[in-house]
Amino acid sequence: MRVLAIDPGYGRCGVAVLERENGKKETLLYSACIQTSKDTEFTARLGIVADECTRLAKKYKPDALAMEKLYFSTNQKTVMRVAEVRGALIQLATSLGIPVFEYTPGEIKSAAGGSGRADKQQIAKMLHALVKIEKEIKYDDEYDAIAVGVTHWARHRH
């Protein structure tokens, strides 16, 4: 079973592909941070993120797409733009027949860090214990996406 896990964003979007085989530790097949320039129009930035996620979905053929639910921040423009990214990702998944699952930040911290109050360092350490990661993780966004994938496995024991 494979999951394409996404920490949605348009400036920085964390993506990870995790695989689980019966009786084995989850394995990280791929992770990255899709970055777009703030000098680029939003619609082009959205296209870059959607195109890369489409490429990953077609290459890795995941059984599910999991992503973080939107939470409200003080910057309404940012929230609206992230909501648009999420909509594009939901559409691409459904067009490819991939079921979509969404998790709150609290669910992710609890599943990936052992506590709803876990900080980024605690979560990163726990992810290395839970998932076979054989590469250097360069960006927090990658860890966030991996954590979304771990949350999916915790909620959906296939």
TrEMBL record:
Binding residues for Mg(2+) 1: 7, 141
Catalyses which reaction(s): Endonucleolytic cleavage at a junction such as a reciprocal single-stranded crossover between two homologous DNA duplexes (Holliday junction)
Pfam families: RuvC
Single GO MF descriptor: DNA binding
SUPFAM superfamilies (alphabetical): Ribonuclease H-like
Cofactor(s) essential for the protein: Mg(2+)
GO terms under cellular component: cytoplasm; Holliday junction resolvase complex
EC number: 3.1.21.10
Binding note for cofactor: Binds 2 Mg(2+) ion per subunit.
BP terms from Gene Ontology: DNA recombination; DNA repair
Domain of life: Bacteria
Main subcellular location: cytoplasm
Entry binding sites for Mg(2+) 2: 68
Subcellular compartments: Cytoplasm
Active site: 7, 68, 141
Gene3D superfamilies assigned: Ribonuclease H-like superfamily/Ribonuclease H (3.30.420.10)
Keywords for the protein's UniProt record, in alphabetical order: Cytoplasm, DNA damage, DNA recombination, DNA repair, DNA-binding, Endonuclease, Hydrolase, Magnesium, Metal-binding, Nuclease
Function: The RuvA-RuvB-RuvC complex processes Holliday junction (HJ) DNA during genetic recombination and DNA repair. Endonuclease that resolves HJ intermediates. Cleaves cruciform DNA by making single-stranded nicks across the HJ at symmetrical positions within the homologous arms, yielding a 5'-phosphate and a 3'-hydroxyl group; requires a central core of homology in the junction. The consensus cleavage sequence is 5'-(A/T)TT(C/G)-3'. Cleavage occurs on the 3'-side of the TT dinucleotide at the point of strand exchange.
Quaternary state and interactors: Homodimer which binds Holliday junction (HJ) DNA. The HJ becomes 2-fold symmetrical on binding to RuvC with unstacked arms; it has a different conformation from HJ DNA in complex with RuvA. In the full resolvosome a probable DNA-RuvA(4)-RuvB(12)-RuvC(2) complex forms which resolves the HJ.
UniProt record similarity statement: Belongs to the RuvC family.
Entry protein name: Crossover junction endodeoxyribonuclease RuvC
Organism: Candidatus Kaiserbacteria bacterium RIFCSPHIGHO2_02_FULL_49_16
